[in-house]
Amino acid sequence: MQGLMQDWPLTLNRIIEHAAKWHGDREVLSRRPDGPLERTSYAEIEVAARRFSSALLSLGIVPGDRVATMAMNSGRHLECWYGIMGIGAVCHTLNPRLFNADLELIVNRAADSVVIVDRSLAAKLAGVLSACPSVRHVVLIEGAGPVTQRSARGYCLARLRCARRSSSADRAMGRVSAGLCFTSGTTSRPKGVLYSHRSNFLHTLMALQADMQGLSARDVILSIVPMFHANAWGLAFSAPAVGAKLVMPGEDLHPAALAETIELEEVTFAGAVPTVMQGLIDHYRTARTRPATLKRVITGGARCPERMIEEFEDVLGVEVVHAWGMTELSPR
Q: What is the dihedral of CA 294, 299, 304, 306, to 10 degrees?
């Protein structure tokens, strides 16, 4: 006898749908390139993701096609993620800090059909597109300004009718990959890692445990680690999974700007690499202050010195979780 209770696939669209239903008014904040914070909510992101799914379908994208993003952390980037994965396409994050030769290699190996790009990174993308024949369209993230003909062969505005998702579509999505990340800190050339919907869903459940991220709806998360770095350590999934307020710092990672955001938005949790953590320590030491609400920081991407952990915990009163893993392990 086959049990059918709660028989539904572990696909990532379920996460943003859950957030929209139960935590729809919870804020997602993004620092714009010109300075001010842009505010949206999980309910608005879920609707925008469906619109973006429709836009991709209109471009002929089908399950299994690779759709790349070259963008900084923002609510609009998050909309693209869920819009791509929501129709069974593969979300391929591109690291703009790589050399052009590596980016060309990555795009060609992935055979990306579409690239979604921030305005600030359009020139970087333009330097590699001529060597990437698989790319049929370039989508500028809305609100970032006009894209030049030099940096895009195609252009699309995601303002179409919402696509509906059925349970049969969910099951089809479960059989294809959800995300594609290439390693950047290894020997030789970057290597591709494919994530399934199920693996990222299970990783989210693991990351939310008390001894890892330990997040809840009461948290305010500052996602400093880039979304193109091993899926931002899963924060783009775990935050909406519990309905936590999510703060995206954008391109400005200067310690003073981050400290101001932590204070104004009452951040309780942050994810950052050790170099960013050191900058925050130096800032607070110079200012002779400490964060009032920040309780926990997760760090990784490089070895965090024991001295830095001690300073965060003893001087700033912030617990540090040192998470070391691999891109191949989702990322831990």
A: 40
Q: Is 332 helix (H, G, I), strand (E, B) or coil?
A: coil
Overall pTM > 0.90: yes
Q: pLDDT band for position 199 (50/70/90)?
A: very high
All residues at 6 or more sequence positions from 252 whose CB lies less than 8 Å from its CB, including other chains = 31
Beta carbons of 259 and 307 less than 8 angstroms apart: no
**Distance in angstroms (rounded) separating the CA atoms of residues 217 and 208:** 11
pLDDT at position 157 over 80 = no
Buried/exposed 97-131: b ≥16 CB within 10 Å, e otherwise: ebeeebbbbbbebbebbbbbbbbbbbebbbebbee
Decide: 273 and 265 in contact? Cβ < 8 Å. Answer: no
* CATH number among 3.40.50.12780, 3.40.50.300, 3.40.50.2300, 3.90.78.10, domain 25-329: 3.40.50.12780
For 106-142, the pLDDT digits (tens) are 999 999 999 999 988 999 999 999 999 999 999 988 5
Torsion angle of C-alpha atoms 242, 31, 179, 229, degrees rounded to 10: -100
Contact 236, 321 (CB under 8 A): no
